[in-house]
């Protein structure tokens, strides 16, 4: 039985989980105030501050860190890499420390995991970071050579629910053709075949359906006109696309539950139109990925926080059930997904990949 410490850093919190195999013994969210975070110029500068909070919390729980068999961190913004569980090496830490792929709180996951792991002489891992890139070559072509399509999506949860479905049906993930739809603050719809995500809509700043706070695909000509109108700075335009887009732009909230209430209970016709447009766009993305898989789709999987909504899932299912059966795994469990990734290595099911 393997005992694991899972570290999932967010912008204003650090989520911890202690597991014995896949059994969660306890978890905790350590909150960091704006004032605490503001004292650091760069995210990497928060390392010692967060590490002390983690160790202090474990000490208060009478947890001896030497009893852990491995430390697992959330993967950060690295270079594009295939899916899998990666041993945290010096070169991986270097790219996180130097923010090779950009500044993000998740960069601290691998850094903290390795530092704590090294101190107790145990291995450290990251699992399926957002930069997982398994795109087929034709999926990279956008129509403008200088603007290739890139793979940025909810890799950790997409891979976790795909493998969960395979396990529950007694099949191998690598033998299935799946379309996985993650619906949270961002939306990503991926085509899984041969154990790889060969096409996926960019969940951050690219294409596909709009989401609670992201614009998704917008008319490019009109966007260019907006950029050169003189009314907005580059930062303001980006905020319109990421953060203040989607539900936020139309309805002033990024809470899908609030949008559902406005649309379905309060009779807000504008909210109903926007909500139904979201459902239609996600369904269109599923149809697009079905074409990528040449119509040979074994299962469609709906996941993420929005998948808790009965109206959303029923409406999407009604639109796409002609393609394949649909399974709903509402929510996401990042701590468990990270634990499972490490366990596959510790149990000998997979080999740890080298960055």
TrEMBL record:
<dbReference type="InterPro" id="IPR023865">
    <property type="entry name" value="Aliphatic_acid_kinase_CS"/>
</dbReference>
<dbReference type="InterPro" id="IPR043129">
    <property type="entry name" value="ATPase_NBD"/>
</dbReference>
<dbReference type="GO" id="GO:0006083">
    <property type="term" value="P:acetate metabolic process"/>
</dbReference>
<dbReference type="InterPro" id="IPR011245">
    <property type="entry name" value="Butyrate_kin"/>
</dbReference>
<dbReference type="Pfam" id="PF00871">
    <property type="entry name" value="Acetate_kinase"/>
</dbReference>
<protein>
    <recommendedName>
        <fullName>Probable butyrate kinase</fullName>
        <ecNumber>2.7.2.7</ecNumber>
    </recommendedName>
</protein>
<keyword id="KW-0808">Transferase</keyword>
<dbReference type="GO" id="GO:0005524">
    <property type="term" value="F:ATP binding"/>
</dbReference>
<dbReference type="GO" id="GO:0047761">
    <property type="term" value="F:butyrate kinase activity"/>
</dbReference>
<keyword id="KW-0067">ATP-binding</keyword>
<comment type="similarity">
    <text>Belongs to the acetokinase family.</text>
</comment>
<dbReference type="GO" id="GO:0008776">
    <property type="term" value="F:acetate kinase activity"/>
</dbReference>
<dbReference type="InterPro" id="IPR000890">
    <property type="entry name" value="Aliphatic_acid_kin_short-chain"/>
</dbReference>
<keyword id="KW-0547">Nucleotide-binding</keyword>
<dbReference type="GO" id="GO:0005737">
    <property type="term" value="C:cytoplasm"/>
</dbReference>
<keyword id="KW-0418">Kinase</keyword>
<keyword id="KW-0963">Cytoplasm</keyword>
């Amino acid at each position: 039985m393997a005992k694991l410490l899972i570290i999932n850093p967010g912008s204003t919190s650090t989520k911890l989980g202690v597991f014995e195999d896949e059994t969660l013994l306890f978890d905790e969210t350590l909150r960091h105030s704006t004032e605490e975070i503001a004292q650091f110029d760069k995210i990497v500068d928060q390392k010692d501050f967060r590490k002390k909070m983690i160790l202090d919390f474990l000490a208060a729980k009478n947890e001896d860190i030497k009893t852990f068999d491995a430390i697992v961190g959330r993967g950060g913004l690295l270079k594009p890499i295939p899916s899998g569980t990666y041993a945290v090496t010096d070169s991986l830490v270097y790219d996180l420390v130097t923010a090779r792929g950009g500044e993000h709180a998740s960069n601290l996951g691998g850094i903290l995991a390795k530092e704590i792991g090294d101190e107790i002489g145990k291995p450290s891992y990251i699992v399926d970071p957002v930069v997982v890139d398994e795109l087929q070559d034709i999926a990279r072509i956008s129509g403008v050579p200088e603007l290739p399509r890139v793979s940025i999506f909810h890799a950790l949860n997409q891979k976790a629910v795909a493998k969960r479905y395979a396990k529950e049906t007694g099949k191998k993930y690598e033998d299935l053709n799946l379309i996985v739809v993650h619906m949270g603050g961002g939306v990503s719809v991926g085509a899984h075949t041969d154990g790889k995500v060969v096409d996926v809509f960019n969940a951050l700043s690219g294409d596909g359906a709009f989401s609670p706070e992201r614009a998704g695909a917008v008319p490019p000509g009109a966007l260019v006109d907006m950029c050169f109108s003189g009314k907005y700075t580059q930062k303001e335009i980006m905020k319109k696309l990421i953060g203040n887009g989607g539900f936020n732009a139309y309805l002033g909230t990024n809470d899908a539950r609030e949008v559902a209430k406005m649309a379905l209970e309060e009779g807000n016709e504008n909210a109903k139109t926007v909500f139904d447009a979201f459902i239609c766009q996600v369904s269109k993305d599923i149809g697009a990925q079905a074409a990528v898989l040449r119509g040979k789709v074994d299962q469609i999987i709906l996941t993420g926080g929005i998948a808790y909504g009965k109206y959303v899932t029923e409406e999407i299912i009604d639109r796409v059930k002609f393609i394949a059966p649909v399974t709903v795994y509402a929510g996401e469990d990042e701590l468990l997904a990270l634990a499972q990734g490490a366990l596959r290595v510790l149990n000998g099911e997979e080999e740890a990949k080298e960055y």
